[in-house]
Amino acid sequence: MLWKQFFTPVKSYSVKEAAEFLTGKNPSDVTVLDVRQPGEYRQGHLPGARLVPMGELSDRLDELERDGPTLVYCAIGGRSRVAAQMLAGKGFKHVINMAGGFKDWESMQQGSGWTSTGDYTQGLELFPDDIDVRRALEVAWGMEAALEEFYRDMAARAREAGKETTAAMYDRLARFEVGHKAKIENRYAALAGSDAELEKKAAQVVEGGMTTEEYMQRSGIDPADPAHIAGFAMMMEAQAMDLYARAARSAADAGTAAFLEDMVQEEKSHMQQVGRLLDSLLEDQNHG
């Protein structure tokens, strides 16, 4: 299964540009938002950064200033780009993603020369708020299929490394995606009269996209780093959640809107579970 990204672009700064932007500003002038997990935050963060993990963001928007500038960052820039898009879609006026994330920031501070490889706009496709619901379901089915394939691949890798507990978590997440695909198939059949063409349509939507390995490489993900993999999974769950939320706003009937809103809540739950997995992985690393 191939990947594509479906977000309206948001402004991104390099870490150097972000540092220049923050110079001379008081904490009340700008919200510096860290959307990583608590374990990542404890290992280091930008001065004055506010921690709101990605899986909690949609429930904690009222804690954040909507009218002033918000600089969002994560580990390497993938989760924060998704978070920035979500904030912009919720009416936040001036949202900036820090490309390269804390890893680039730390490298700049230490002068180590590390730079991220992620090109977060390549392959980007504009996805309007008034998306047709049938097309949204086709995209969603393709995304769920890609997530299932990704989780099964990660489970196999974890087992090869003797990490059965981690493998079991990935297996569980893969089963969730199977359930999501079945729900989408049922809703699609109700709208289109049949789900016979759904898989074919979904494949057409992501035609020209990237394989999982290519997407991970493009996003600067180290496939040998479990924490990177978990962060990547959270980014993709967030992308699915944003898709469902946009489609719900344009659904023509209450039943479809309610179905899509339920899917938003399920994706949020998945993000939180992957977040807990990431915290567990970081704790294991600290005690390893």
TrEMBL record:
It holds the Pfam family Rhodanese. Residues 26-114 form the Rhodanese domain. PROSITE patterns: RHODANESE_1, RHODANESE_3. It comes from the Bacteria. GO terms for molecular function: metal ion binding; oxidoreductase activity; thiosulfate-cyanide sulfurtransferase activity. SMART domains: RHOD. SUPFAM superfamilies: Ferritin-like, Rhodanese/Cell cycle control phosphatase. This is Rhodanese-like protein.
